[in-house]
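Bumping my old thread because nobody answered last time. Still need a sequence for this structure:
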């Protein structure tokens, strides 16, 4: 199996330039042969200098690139016409290669509100269009019909593709989220048994980590300080995930919680990083870097000529994970030596899963390749931490913003579970309003706001506009689909689509909008690649929310701008306050790595002395 670090001395930019240089060198040889053997010998031209050869090689490469682009465009146009289809509308930029369009999309992903600019393009060109940055196809859609084709009905024709896999490889490796074909099927078979009903009811695991997280929250709020709830939930879900995956906890909740910037300055506090906190920081940094690579098309390696930006954080990740994997492999080898009938070449289907086996225990039984094991574990850690922590953060934001929702949810908690009893899976299943709050949060802020697939072969899709011919999807075309924008479409969810209203999941709006078209709600993806851990995530989020509301009466946002440094890029732009819809209402700064998060955190505080439930004091 290829190790992502085998060529760690070579940066992505150096590898990219080496490949292009080699092609240029081969072209130069061809040009020289034509000059010397054909033009000079047979056509009696004068001799050509090396400088002339160099110049003609550049000219040839430029014209060849133009020829390739035009040939591909002409072929696609001919193929579309022959099938009675039309080409997708293309965004018209003002600069060559649509560089201005690429910049606008990149700015939106880096510092804008999700969907900015793309909303305008959709209003002009429709729900599916081609951005064509630097003459490379990049299709965008928020149509549930097209997303359904990508994820389900035409699943075999759409893969992650090179546009996603290459920039992600140094972080995701060969893990399930970066795999296609047989490797993806292999990973899928491995992880499926660990999200069965028996496995997802590990509420004792949730309770161990939730108790410590809530105690940390109580101590800090009781002392009169605000708390970064996103950081706290990141630690909670990370510790629970490592416990679930490894059978041992990363113990990030044992570290001190961060303080707001104003408190650090006023009290001259310095913080020290532990091994677990360094890992958690590197874990997030690596994802942020690879997410930004996607903004620069296939030319992203040119921004990493002098260093691989993921090398430093991923070294921290490997230093943390490799000993855990090595220990598990060694333990499995010792156990195997005592079993004379064990065949190391058995397929994964033949392996038994013990009642107390973790995913790591099972992986080392199936393969002894530490790279495959590490990549799969890391992919699962991203899914287990980021998606759940992000959603819990957004839920807390809404509970602070809508105290009536918080009060009603607390009433349901007390009615179904009581003021102190640990909830069970049966309790969670019966709490309809809790599920509605979670779903409404996932609707407005799905933690994977954008995803990408690439077509294997050209295909024809019916037009959203019945008066227009079907649309043509070229082969190998990457397609970004946005559930974030789809979840907010008023034609799909009604005129109140941008309002936070959990009641929509309990009244006639479900039957009116969702029941006839279930693909308008896809927080966990759909089709063969649907998230296997969605019920685990629902249970984990439900458990934490219940425990929080058993402990606290209410929450408020700390809106003091000094919770962050004055020059912090994570400050929510003040001009957003004048914007319509959720962009103007919500009080956090949504950004994305591989998943959506609150830039700068979500700082909460206790509103008064009544924040603590008397039964728990």
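Sorry it took so long. Here it is:
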């Amino acid at each position: 199996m290829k190790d992502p670090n085998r060529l760690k001395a070579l940066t992505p930019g150096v590898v990219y330039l080496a490949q292009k240089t080699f092609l240029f060198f081969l072209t130069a040889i061809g040009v020289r042969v034509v000059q010397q053997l054909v033009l000079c010998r047979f056509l009696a031209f004068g001799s050509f200098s090396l400088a002339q050869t160099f110049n003609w090689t550049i000219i040839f490469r430029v014209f060849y690139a133009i020829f390739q682009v035009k040939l591909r465009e002409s072929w696609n146009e001919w193929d579309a016409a022959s099938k009675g289809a039309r080409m997708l509308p293309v965004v018209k930029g003002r600069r060559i290669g649509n560089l201005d369009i690429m910049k606008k999309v990149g700015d939106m992903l880096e510092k804008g509100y999700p969907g900015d600019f793309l909303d305008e393009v959709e209003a002009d060109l429709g729900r599916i269009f081609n951005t064509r940055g630097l003459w490379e196809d990049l299709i965008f859609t928020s149509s549930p019909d097209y997303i359904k084709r990508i994820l389900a009905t035409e699943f075999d024709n759409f893969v992650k593709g090179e546009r996603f896999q290459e920039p992600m490889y140094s972080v995701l490796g060969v893990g399930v989220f970066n795999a296609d074909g047989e490797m993806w099927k292999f990973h899928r078979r491995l992880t499926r048994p660990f999200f069965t009903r028996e496995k997802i009811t590990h509420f004792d695991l949730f309770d161990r980590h939730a108790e410590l997280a809530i105690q940390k929250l109580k101590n800090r709020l009781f002392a009169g300080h605000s708390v970064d709830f996103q950081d706290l939930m990141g630690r909670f879900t990370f510790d629970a995930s490592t416990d679930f995956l490894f059978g041992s906890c990363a113990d990030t909740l044992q570290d001190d919680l961060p303080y707001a910037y104003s408190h650090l300055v006023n009290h001259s506090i310095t913080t020290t990083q532990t091994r677990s906190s360094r890992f958690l920081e590197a874990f997030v940094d690596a994802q942020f870097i690879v997410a930004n690579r996607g903004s620069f098309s296939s030319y992203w390696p040119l921004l990493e000529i002098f260093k691989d930006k993921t090398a430093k954080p991923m070294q921290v990740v490997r230093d943390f994970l490799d000993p855990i994997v090595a220990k598990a492999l060694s333990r499995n080898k010792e156990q195997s030596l005592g079993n004379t009938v064990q065949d190391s070449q058995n397929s994964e289907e033949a392996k038994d899963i013990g009642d107390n086996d973790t995913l790591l225990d099972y992986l080392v039984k199936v393969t002894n390749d530490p790279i495959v094991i590490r990549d799969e574990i890391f992919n699962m850690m991203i899914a287990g931490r980021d998606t759940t922590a992000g959603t819990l953060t957004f839920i807390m934001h809404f509970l602070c913003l809508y105290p009536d929702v918080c009060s009603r949810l607390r009433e349901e908690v007390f009615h179904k579970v009581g003021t102190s009893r640990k909830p069970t899976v049966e309790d969670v299943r019966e709490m309809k309003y809790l599920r509605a709050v979670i779903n409404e949060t996932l609707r407005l802020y799905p933690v994977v706001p954008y995803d990408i697939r690439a077509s294997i072969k050209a295909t024809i899709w019916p037009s959203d506009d019945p008066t227009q011919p079907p649309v043509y999807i070229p082969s190998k075309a990457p397609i970004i689909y946005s559930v974030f924008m789809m979840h907010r479409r008023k034609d799909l969810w009604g005129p109140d689509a941008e309002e936070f209203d959990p009641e929509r999941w309990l009244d006639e709006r479900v039957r009116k909008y969702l029941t006839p078209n279930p693909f308008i709600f896809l927080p966990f993806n759909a089709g063969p690649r649907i998230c296997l851990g969605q019920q685990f995530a629902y249970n984990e989020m439900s458990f934490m929310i219940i425990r929080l509301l058993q402990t606290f009466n209410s929450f408020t946002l700390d809106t003091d701008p000094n919770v962050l440094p004055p020059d912090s890029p994570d400050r929510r732009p003040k001009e957003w306050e004048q914007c319509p819809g959720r962009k103007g209402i919500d009080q956090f700064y949504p950004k994305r790595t591989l998943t959506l998060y609150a830039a700068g955190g979500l700082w909460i505080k206790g509103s008064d002395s009544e924040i603590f439930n008397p039964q728990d004091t």
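The two ends are 55 Å apart (CA to CA). Let me know if any region looks off to you.
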